[in-house]
Each structure stands twice: as C-alpha cells, then as structure tokens.
Amino acid sequence: MDRRSTPFSGRFALPSLRGRVEATLTEGKAGSVRLPLADLLAHPGGARDRQVLLGDAVTVIDLQDGHAFVQAAKDGYCGWLAEDAIGPPMQPTHWVSARSSHLYTAPKVQAPEVAALPFGARLTVRASRGSFAETPFGHVPMAHLRKLEDRPRDPVSVAEGFLGAPYLWGGNSAAGLDCSGLVQAAMLACGLPCPGDSDQQQALGQPLSDGAALERGDLLFWKGHVAWVADKRRILHANGHTMSVTFEPIASAIARILAQDGGPVIARRRLVMS
C-alpha cells in the first residue's frame, strides 16, 4: 500500500482499511489547517512530502510527539502535521485567487500585516469592510478573493501566474513549489481533482500516443517530473534546472532531461475538462 494514500499511522487507521491492516480503527476527528502554510511530513519531525494550506480540511487519525497523522480531504494525501497547525473544522466561503496575499489587523492598507496567505488558501468571510473582507484570522483585500464556487477554467493560465516562483521540493505555494505542486495548484483552483505527486498525477486524463499532436493543457511526464504543455512549442514547469517556474521549448527540455540522466518522456496525458 502507498503510505501517501493509506490512512494508517502504524497504530490507528480509518475504517476503510478494515481487514487490510492490523490497527485500532477510528473514525478520526475532523479538523482544518489553521496556519497559512504547513508542511505535511513523512513522519513526526521528518522530511516534507507536501504542504497544506489554510482552510484545507483534514481528518486527524493519530497523535504522537506533538504531531498529528492526518488525511487531507482535497487529495487524500496522508502524513504528519505539527499539532499547532490544526484547528477546528471550517466552513470556507472564499479562496485566495491572487498569487499571494496578506492578513491584516484592520481593514486598511496601512494596517500591520499578520501573515502572508498563499494562493488557494480558503477563508470564511464574515463581513465586508470597505474593500476588505473580515475573516476569523484577520482582514484580507476583497480583490484577492473569489467565492468558493467561482473558479477559473484554464489551469495553464493559473499555472502561468506562478512564473518565476522559486523551486521547492514538496512545495505548494508561490513561496516555493515543485513540478507536481504547480500542476495540483492549477487544477484544484479550477475545481479539478488532482493528487499531490507526479507519479499519482500520471493517472489523470487520457493517454496520448507518442506521435499525437500536443495541445495546451496536456501533461508530459518523466520519471519524477511533470510539466504543463503551454502550446505546441513550449512546456511550463517548476524545475530544478532553473530552480524556478519557467517556460522551456519542448524539444530542448526533452533533450536536456535525457542528457542529464532524467530519462525519456514516459507518459503524455490529456485532461478531460467538464
């Protein structure tokens, strides 16, 4: 079983794993991420697998050493979060549609900022205060928010909004993100389901033959890497070569990655848009 998608801490598991693991079964406890950005770890105090954002719903399955083993609702990803990153369940009304934003102590641009907010964070707007939204965590410019159901339709355009963002292994925000983080951020923003890592994302959409003409919105996969097709000539990807989100000619990228022992393209997928 893939630990990333298996709600089993080693001691406790969700009932969906009944008969498949030796564990105490629990329904878990509903919660949500209360920090702007938090690392989802492979084990308590361990390496980052992915990141979760403010307002992301989680199910808490186990507690150990100041950490909670959780499953994220948005993609089913499982891992350990610092306990102080988790709060009670939220009922978000809006999401951050700007590349990044801030929480302010008061509804005015001169007010001190409380924290930075990443693209995709989810918030409950209590009231409108001029050009600011009042939330339980502070005030946010209304221009940086969309209603929860108000979603863009082109994930590549969303991904283009991250151009120049630094590369960060396991990152999921404009402060730093990796190849699969870029794909997931764009797809979730458009209301499209998407798992967290590139090997999992390889199951998305429909397969394309090697000779098929590529279109904007297709995905190209290498072992451990994924890129958006921006147009017939270019891909858009977060990559360790430039350590940033950048465009790259398709032919050049394929040749460069092969020359750097990254192997050939192993899959081409076309998303099915509803």
TrEMBL record:
Gene3D superfamilies named among the record's database cross-references: endopeptidase domain like (from Nostoc punctiforme)
Pfam families registered for this protein in UniProt: NLPC_P60 (PF00877), SH3_16 (PF18348)
Domain NlpC/P60 residues, every copy: 149-272
Alphabetical list of InterPro entries matching this protein: NLP_P60_dom (IPR000064), Papain-like_cys_pep_sf (IPR038765), PG_Endopeptidase_C40 (IPR051794), SH3_16 (IPR041382)
GO molecular function, one term: cysteine-type peptidase activity
Keyword Hydrolase annotated: yes
Amino-acid biosynthesis listed as a keyword: no
UniProt-recorded name of the protein: C40 family peptidase
Taxonomic source organism: Pseudotabrizicola algicola
Organism lineage string: Bacteria, Pseudomonadati, Pseudomonadota, Alphaproteobacteria, Rhodobacterales
